[in-house]
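Take a look at the protein record below and tell me what you see:
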Amino acid sequence: MEEKSGPAQPMRTHTVLLLLFVASGCAALIYEIVWFHLLRLVIGASALSLGILLASFMGGMFLGSLLLARVVPSTAHPLRVYGLIEIGIGAFGLALPFVLPGARAVYLGLFGHGLAGIALRGLVAAIILLPPTALMGATLPAVARRYHGGAAGSSALAELYGANTFGAVLGCLCTGFYILPNWDIVVASAIAAALNLAIGLTALRLSRRPEQGASAPRENDDVSATPRDAARTVYEVVALSGLTALGAQVAWTRLLALLFGGTIYTFAIILAVFLGGLGLGSGIAAGALKRGYDGRRLLAASQLALVPALVYAAFMIGRIIPYTSTLRVVPIGTLHTLHVIHCLEVILPAAVLWGMSFPLALAAAGDASADRGRSSGNVYAANTLGAIVGSLATSLLIIPSWGTRTAQQIFVVLSAASAALMYASLRAASRKNDPDARSATPPAEATKPKRTRLDLLAELPLPIAIVGVLLVPALPAKFQAIGRYIWTLNDRDKIPYMVEGVASTVAVRESSNHRYYHVAGKVEASTDALDMRLQRLLGHLSALAHPRPESVLVVGLGAGVTAGAFVVHPEVKRIVICEIEPAVLPAASRYFSQENHAVLADPRVEVINDDARHFLATTHEKFDIITSDPIHPWVRGNSVLFSQEYYAIVKEKLNRGGLATQWVPLYETSEKAIQIQMRTFVDAFPDGAVFNSQPEAKGYDVVLLGQMEPLRIDIAAVQKRIDDNEALRKSLTDVKLTSALDIFASYGTRGRELGEWLKDTPVNRDFSLKLEYISGLAFNYQVADEIYANMIKGRAYPDDIFIAPDELIAQLRARLAPKARPAAK
């Protein structure tokens, strides 16, 4: 579009717009990270809930891109519309952190868990997300009206898309590595809103310059260069491109997280590299369009080139990287550098091609309508719709049903199909414009048409797809089972069970007469003596510290050993287990039934396939005991099970005299992360006590025991319950806990004695993700002994907790005395 003030001003305005789109992309990624976290709290973290959340988020962008040109008249000044949209996004961004906590009240009293609850949660998410995400989807179509058709306009839009994607990379890295580790989501939202406000005001100021309100084609622009049927093909191709891009991102994230560990930093790095590839690809496309290359031909070529790129990525993940990456105790910065390199090796080639696809589709379809906003909105909507289908189908259907290898093979086929569609459209257009092909010569007299280059290219996708599918390697079961710990395997290890579930990959490994239960590569339980002692202690300590427990809630099934400990307590009438991954149940029942006392076959047990925190928030039931199977706080999303708000929900759902227990690992973490966890628990249960799973005063992991009332434990009464229950006695003896004295001799310290150690330690809160980030930075630390020594440094014998005859008290004092050793230097 030509501006009245001369040719220099449009160029200056475009340069400013590029900077604005960088800032807009940065703000959008901040919001995406923050909103996903907040909405997980609102609707839960089950795979189905997160699928609904993703569909709501991207569905809003789809509607915004599709409706902008249909709602806003073409006479409206594009920069003014854009400025108002950005201000609107900022307003919603500021409001959501305060609106979302109140959203829980909409459904808490109406439905509990189950499909009805999930449906209502999805509706809540859609209503909340629709306005801001629709505005986000409308930004590019709004600005697109400023640009005329032809190569120059298409190149300019490609540059804007690339700038926006580059900004998204900055937003992803800044949020993941600086803003949230140091601040909270309110500050993050304020930063993003400030960016939106600055963008909006700048755009409104630009709109006051003399400029036509809507773009009009120049005389030498051919608005009919792309017929409607050809434009429809472009929309189909770019939808397939979005489908394969988001589907592959889901699959690669699942596999790369196995290699890197499921920390928040892993996901930030993967997303940043993916977005960086998109931005690089859009820049390449912009340059090609500026030099006059045909966008339609390049779009077809980019889709065809995706086939070898996808095969290459599958080969790197399945055959190369797992065997060149070993677990080392190295500085976390070095680990992050290695992770970036591996992500570039896997993701970059295909991401560049997907990054080219979108702006090339804008160019290919842009001349089908005089309204550039409408055509660009259609392309954006098609791409977003494909992305929605790809992400949901891959995570909820393809991977759980057929696995990641089949998923990658499907992406190969779909990329080839999109190339075939585009080449067929080009060939049809070429024949339509060929005078010989349109001649009225009777078929009998016509000569055989000459085969063109397009004819040859149109025949390539099918054979390339067949070869590509055959070349996608099968992923070794051992790699999928234990991920980055693959270096610990020996040739005699067996993987009798491995399932790629909806939320995680679940596996069982047999090694040296022990069985290990893995989730996303991480060992969560095992039959090893030390692990068995912890898992049984979690259950039995909870049950025996309560005088008569009748109802129990267990967060996470794992191998079922913790939940199974309650089976041998006859006074327990009901055991509810919340497990987010259905694939866990067969592993626990088939391979750990002896260790977990066949818990899943017990008639008192009910398994809830839902996010445990959301179940607790929505259920009207109360429990005598709420405990959890070992859940690592450094895994992304798990820190909300160690937050002040979570413990408030737990206390609300405990019966009078009820107990809460929490596992805290001291290994693969830092003292600061442990202090945050301890401070949060002690704030909720001031008289909470710490018990050590180790038979000696060493650091490995501990169990926190909390009660609303002052904690009192009658050791003699507990011993009588053990003596009267042969099954309980055997379950304890199996892990070398032969008496009540053995159990309570594991006492470490309590909340009132941790004041000095926890001084100046912040509480972990839902809005502050410091625990998640601090834990993620320390998951390769090995300082457990030092942490435990410092934790118990100020302890004294708890006269008011343990009630027992003098002889038992004397024995307990003697057992506890050696454990009060000085802190390690």
The mean pLDDT is 87. The longest strand covers residues 654-665. The chain has 26 helices and 14 strands.
